[in-house]
Design a protein that fits this description.
- This protein has 435 residues and is α+β, with helices and mostly antiparallel strands.
- It has helices spanning 45-48, 125-135, 170-188, 206-218, 245-249, 251-254, 256-269, 298-309, 372-376, 404-407, 425-434, and strands at residues 15-20, 23-29, 35-39, 43-44, 56-61, 67-74, 80-87, 92-93, 102-110, 112-123, 156-163, 195-202, 225-230, 282-287, 293-294, 319-324, 326-332, 338-345, 353-358, 385-388, 395-400, 413-422.
Length: 435
C-alpha cells in the first residue's frame, strides 16, 4: 500500500505539490534553516499495517536529501501516544507504542529543494522489500545496455566492492557511504584504466544506490563500473549460529555460493561470458572494502605485478595469488582526525591480495587467506602464493570506531616505517593522492 495517496488534499504553505503518474513532485521555497510538515489525515493503523510487531515502511525518493518522515501515534480516543522521525530511502521496521489504534504520517521537508516522492510503501519487511525492488528505477532498465569494452592486450582487473551487505542501521549506512564516496573519487583518479568495478549493493538501500549512481556518473566511471543490485533472501541467511563477524554481517562475501552468485550476476550485467574470454587474456581479481582507500597508482602497480608473474602461468600453474605487505594502517575518527601508520604487515588484508590467471576467471579474492605463510605450507592449497614488497604503500586499510584495543593491528606489524597525522579526511585523501 502507498501512503503517498493520503496527501492528495494537503495544502502546505511553502511547498508546492504536483501529483503525477510517477509520484509527487515537490518544490520547496523554504529558507535554508526552515522546515515544514505536510500532514495526512488521521488513519487507522490496522488498515495500513497488519501486525504491529512487523510494521515496516519505506519512503522512496529520487534524491531524498531534503525530506524525512514523521509518524504520530494515537490511542482509541485519538490522544497522542508518541511520535518518531525516520529517514527517506531506507526500509524502516518499527514497533508502535502499546495501545496504538490510529496514526498520522507527515512529510518533513526542509530547506529550498526539489524532489520526486516515488512511493511510501507499507506492510511487513518481506512485502516492503519486494515492492522496493519493484519500484527501484535500477530494476526497470539494464544496468549496462551493451557489453563493457576492455583491452585484451593488457591485464584486465576485476575489482569487487560489497557495500554494507546486511547493514540496516541508517546512521551506519550513512557513515560508510561517506567513506565509500572517498573511495569512488580515488578510483576515478586511477592512472591504469583497463578495469571493471563491480559494486554489489542490496536492493533495500535505495538512498545509497542513488548516491553511488550519481557520483559514478559525475566522475565518468560509467564505462568501467557495474552497479550490481541483489536481493536478500526472504527468510534471511539462517546464519545466526555463526560466531565470526564477517559471516554474520557480510554473508555475500563470506559464503562461497553467495559470493560467486553475485559475481556471476555482475559479469552478466557487464556482458561478459566466461567462454568468450581470450586464451591469452591476463585476468586479475581483487576486492576493496567499502571504507578503505587506494592511491592513484593502485591499479597500475597491480597490473605491473600481474605482468611480471604472467610468464609463470601455464597448464600446471593456471593461477597465482599475490600479496602486498606494505600498507597504510589508518585510524579514522568521525570528526576527521586521522593517524596513518606506514608499515610492513604480516597479514594480507582485503585490498592487498589478488589472484592472477590467463584465459580463465581466477580465484575470488574473498577466498584468499590473510596468512600467506600458513597457506604456502598447507597441503590443501596448490595455488602459489607470493608476497611482494613495494617501495611505498598503495593501499590504506582504514580502521574506525572506539574499540582500538582490538582494531589497531599492531601485533601484525613486521616493521613500522613512519607515522602521519591529519586533521580532516580531505587532507588524508590528498596525502594518499600525492604520496
Amino acid at each position: 500500500m502507498n501512503l503517498l495517496t493520503t496527501f492528495k488534499n494537503c495544502k502546505p504553505k511553502k511547498v508546492k505539490l504536483n501529483f503525477t503518474h510517477a509520484g509527487i513532485e515537490y518544490i520547496s521555497t523554504l529558507g535554508e534553516s526552515e522546515h515544514e510538515y505536510i500532514y495526512s489525515e488521521i488513519l487507522n493503523f490496522s488498515e495500513w499495517f497488519n501486525d504491529p510487531e512487523t510494521a515496516t515502511f519505506s519512503l522512496l525518493c529520487k534524491q531524498g536529501n531534503s525530506v524525512s518522515v514523521a509518524f504520530f501515534f494515537f490511542d482509541s480516543s485519538q490522544s497522542k501516544l508518541d511520535s518518531k522521525i525516520f529517514p527517506s530511502n531506507q526500509m524502516i521496521s518499527f514497533n508502535p507504542p502499546e495501545g496504538t489504534v490510529y496514526f498520522r504520517v507527515a512529510l518533513r521537508v526542509y530547506g529550498p529543494a526539489e524532489d520526486l516522492l516515488i512511493a511510501m510503501l507499507t506492510g511487513d519487511s518481506d512485502s516492503v522489500l519486494a515492492l522496493m525492488t519493484e519500484y527501484n528505477s535500477f530494476n526497470h532498465t539494464p544496468l549496462k545496455a551493451e557489453r563493457i569494452s576492455y583491452s585484451e592486450l593488457q591485464p584486465l582487473i576485476f575489482l569487487e566492492t560489497l557495500f554494507c551487505d546486511t547493514e540496516s542501521n541508517s546512521s551506519a549506512i550513512e557513515k560508510y557511504l561517506s567513506y565509500f564516496k572517498g573511495l569512488i573519487g580515488l578510483i576515478a583518479k586511477q592512472q591504469y584504466r583497463n578495469f571493471i568495478w563491480f559494486i554489489h549493493i542490496s536492493s533495500d538501500k535505495g538512498r545509497a544506490i542513488d548516491e553511488v549512481r550519481k557520483i559514478v556518473e559525475r566522475l565518468d566511471l560509467n564505462n568501467n563500473t557495474v552497479i550490481n543490485i541483489y536481493d536478500h533472501p526472504v527468510g534471511g541467511y539462517q546464519n545466526e549460529h555463526e560466531t565470526h563477524i564477517d559471516r554474520l554481517r557480510r554473508p555475500n562475501s563470506s559464503y562461497p555460493e553467495l559470493r560467486e552468485k553475485i559475481f556471476d550476476n555482475a559479469l552478466a550485467a557487464a556482458g561478459i561470458n566466461r567462454s568468450d574470454i581470450a586464451p591469452e587474456q591476463i585476468l586479475v581479481r581483487v576486492a576493496i572494502d567499502d571504507d578503505d582507500f587506494v592511491s592513484p597508482h593502485y591499479f597500475a602497480k597491480i597490473a605491473e605485478l600481474a605482468t611480471g608473474q604472467a610468464p609463470e602461468l601455464n597448464k600446471q600453474t593456471p593461477q597465482i595469488v599475490i600479496g602486498i605487505n606494505r600498507v597504510w594502517i589508518t585510524h579514522l575518527t568521525p570528526g576527521g582526525n586521522s593517524v596513518v601508520h606506514d608499515v610492513k604487515f604480516s597479514r594480507m588484508m582485503t585490498g592487498c591480495k589478488f589472484s592472477i590467471s590467463r584465459g580463465i576467471i581466477p580465484l575470488t579474492p574473498y577466498a584468499i587467506y590473510e596468512r600467506f605463510e600458513e597457506v604456502q605450507n598447507s597441503a590443501v592449497r596448490d595455488i602459489p602464493h607470493k608476497i611482494c614488497s613495494l617501495d611505498k604503500p598503495i593501499f590504506s586499510y582504514n580502521r574506525h570506531g572506539g574499540n582500538y584495543s582490538n582494531q589497531n593491528k599492531k601485533s601484525y606489524y613486521d616493521e613500522h616505517l613512519a607515522t602521519h597525522q591529519f586533521q580532516s579526511h580531505k587532507q588524508l585523501i590528498e596525502f594518499i593522492e600525492n604520496f
